[in-house]
Amino acid sequence: GKKRRSLGVGGADARAKRFSQWPGTASVSNVSDMLHNVEGNGLTSAYRRLVRDWKEVVEHPLPTVSAAPREEDLFEWHCNIKGTEGTPWEGGIFHVILRFLSTYPDRAPIVELCTKISH
Question: What angle do CA 82, 28, 84 make, to 5 degrees?
Fold first, then answer.
């Protein structure tokens, strides 16, 4: 048997809970409120784009990625990515913070990998 390294903190139940929603991130119900607030009120194009991107994430979730903006800051998103099956990262949950700039989508976000990876 091939021995797998344990990645992430806590057991499978804790990892599953962390995968679905990170504490302090905005809930799905906030999407419609944000979309309503975006319409015609002079917000930046980056803000409007992030709201549209969030709506896309909510309406078409990916099975291995969970992402949501912070409740108090649409320009900071917390994401969890499941490790790919058949790789050394299988079973791991990797927490990533995306920090978007006012020039988004012309400039990519700053990405911070928060989960320690042994190598």
Answer: 10
Inter-axis angle of helices 30-38 and 45-59, nearest 10: 150
What was the pLDDT predicted at 83? 93
Contact in structure between 9 and 92 (CB atoms under 8 Å): no
Rg (CA), the chain: 16
46 φ, ψ (degrees, to nearest 5): -65, -45
| Angle ∠(90,91,94) on CA atoms, nearest 5 | 90
pTM score of the predicted model: 0.69
pLDDT (tens digit, 9 = 90+) per residue, 21-61?
555 566 655 655 665 555 555 568 998 899 899 989 988 99
> At residue 17, what are phi and psi to the nearest 5 degrees?
-65, -45
